[in-house]
Specification:
With about 210 residues, this protein is of the alpha/beta class. Helices cover about 40% and strands about 20% of the residues. It contains eight helices and seven strands. The model has no long low-confidence stretch (mean pLDDT about 95).
Length: about 210
């Protein structure tokens, strides 16, 4: 299912300002060197993340799902100079590429990448976070949410990506489609969570903007 017409998508991109050179390089090399380049955030979502960061002025951001580092770099560029971003991933093969971009962007002092199981890693983090961005294994979205929720500051925000999952969330579910089931379960859980305010946005593949009361 095409969520946004390609012509409209191009129009949106063309009316969303310039993309930083380092971000365009990450996008380009992700498309050239990885098997699943569609996983990269891209210009419009990157711009949206930067706008959110500039509005919130978070001192601590947690990202669950690094991939090649586009979203981490985008957010870190918009953070206060004293801000810190921790990004989690379990793919060792992508670490060199992502950390190389962090260094090239001059953001090594802001971004820390941790490898391993995200849920286990989150439980060992001592700090609280003003903003959390979830963009990892879709089957585990509810696990990520439950693990990180106690570490979100009151009034803090959680952003979850891919919550429309190419439109599959409104189609008939097959027994073998665990990723769509994971997203559907997550969406229903958040929608019924009285501890938060929330709004689902149709940006790219769907973003859930969630505020902890």
């Amino acid at each position: 299912m095409e969520l946004v017409n390609k012509t409209v998508e191009a129009y949106i991109s063309n009316h969303s300002g310039e993309e930083k050179e380092i971000l365009h390089k990450i996008w380009r090399e992700t498309n050239l060197k990885t098997f699943y380049p569609n996983m990269v955030s891209g210009k419009v979502q990157g711009k949206f993340l930067q706008m959110i960061v500039r509005m919130l002025h978070p001192e601590n951001i947690l990202e669950i799902g690094t991939f090649t580092g586009y979203s981490a770099v985008a957010m870190a560029l918009a953070m206060p100079e004293t801000g810190k971003l921790i990004t989690l991933d379990n793919n060792e093969e992508i670490e060199t590429m992502a950390t190389g971009f962090f260094k090239e962007a001059g953001l090594e002092h802001k971004i820390t990448m941790l490898l391993g199981d995200a849920v286990s890693t989150i439980s060992g983090l001592p700090q609280t976070f003003d903003l959390v961005f979830i963009d990892a294994d879709k089957e585990q979205y509810t696990d990520y949410y439950n693990a990180v929720f106690p570490k979100v500051s009151p009034g803090g925000f959680i952003l979850a990506d891919n919550v429309l999952w190419g439109g599959k969330v409104v189609e008939k579910l097959t027994k073998t489609d665990k990723e769509t089931k994971g997203i559907q379960d997550f969406n229903e859980m958040v929608n019924n969570d009285t501890r938060v305010e929330k709004v689902m946005l149709s940006i790219r593949d769907g973003l859930y903007l969630i505020r902890k009361k």
